[in-house]
Amino acid sequence: MEADTKRLLASARSGNWAVDEETGTHLRRAITTMLERLAGIEENVRRLKRAPKFGNDEYAKTAAAHFQKAMDSDENSLVPVYEALRGNLNQLVHALDEAMARYDASDEAATQYLGRFKD
User: Fold this and answer.
1) Residue 105 CA to chain centroid, in angstroms?
2) Helix 78-118 crosses helix 2-14 at what angle (to 10 degrees)?
3) What is the pLDDT of residues 1-41, one digit of tens each?
4) What pTM does this model have?
5) How many CA atoms does the CB half-sphere of 10 hold within 13 Å?
6) Buried b (16+ CB within 10 A) or exposed e, 6-45
7) Where does 41-77 have alpha helices with state H?
8) Which of 110, 96, 112, 89 lies closest to 19, judged by CA?
């Protein structure tokens, strides 16, 4: 997802991708709603970074370490995937903002060109 988001942002910045305001607003609202929902579970996700308190015996310590490793050990674990998703969605909002701005600029340029053509 990160590569696709970066590609969209680069495409919007270069003017190769533009989105009209109505479409962009609907997409932006959907993405910000997802970000708000993800923010709502952030504290729970943050707790997953800590080893749970299963007890003090050796088995409990081993199980807690295993649980913590499963939640936050590599980029495919739950916590890093959650964090990457939030970052990618934020970048997607920026890409949409750029694309909407480019649409306005391209629409204005086309109107000016067609106005000259019509005259």
Assistant:
1) 25
2) 20
3) 889 999 988 998 898 888 988 999 999 999 999 999 999 99
4) 0.75
5) 6
6) eebbebbeeeebbbeeeebeebbeebeeebeeeeeeeeeb
7) 42-47, 58-71
8) 96
